[in-house]
Amino acid sequence: MNRMVIIFASLIGAILGMGTNYLNQKLTQREEEATKPPLPKEIYWAPFLNAIFLGLAAYRWGFSVTGLVVSVVIVLLVQIFVFDARHRLILNIIIYPAMLAALAFAYFNPLLFGEGFVKVWSAGLGALLAGGIFLGLVIVSRGGLGLGDAKLVFFLGAILGVLPFPGSPILRALIYGICLGGIISVLLLLTRIRKMKDFIPYGPFLCLGGILVLLYPCGFGLGVSC
């Protein structure tokens, strides 16, 4: 892969991250529940994350349809990551259109396994499986997880799909997200950045889990089918 292509993709990612910051400011002004103050260095989060992840996407797929779709989904997930990390909210105005688009275009989605209606079946079952699991967790946790998390994993299930087995993409995304959430939560508690009674949003970790599967669809050399 041409190094200049990766640099160009990273630069575009940084610019899009600035756009994400602008969008988040506008959404914060419109959303009554978005009352939290900015996080440390938050202005750099989206540009940095987009630059890194879009550079990796360019390294993996170059200028291709798959690379474009991966990049669009990453930019969306980074927006959700930053907004949820600050406000503990995943906005319906963002996630509902994303859910609908993921299902509506499943037939053509290059990220899904199979061809034609196999893709549609994979997307639908992935969305229902992931969304159902987290909806159950939302009910059981009694506020420990939010309904926005269930909507987010519904979207991830639709965009990644449940096929192929073994190594289902959506199940791997959930496992990665849950593991990252557990590890980072423990570190935050040990460093006293957060206390036991503090709420730690789970959406950002789920976003990272999804991004890992987007960038490494065949896993990390562990023999995952893809």
Percentage of helical residues?
55-70%
Low-confidence stretches: none
Strand content: under 5%
Distance between the termini: 22 Å
How would you portray this structure in words?
- The chain is mainly α.
- The protein has eight helices and no strands.
- It has helices spanning about 5-30, 40-60, 65-85, 90-105, 115-140, 145-160, 170-190, 205-215.
- Helix 3 runs antiparallel to helix 8, helix 6 crosses helix 7 (about 170-190) and helix 7 crosses helix 8.
- The protein is globular.
Layout of SSEs?
Blueprint: H1 3-30, H2 42-61, H3 65-87, H4 92-104, H5 117-141, H6 147-160, H7 169-190, H8 203-215
Helix pairs in contact: 1-2, 1-3, 2-3, 3-8, 4-6, 5-6, 6-7, 6-8, 7-8
List its traits.
226 residues, mainly alpha
Brief summary:
With 226 residues, the chain is an all-alpha fold. It contains 8 helices and no strands.
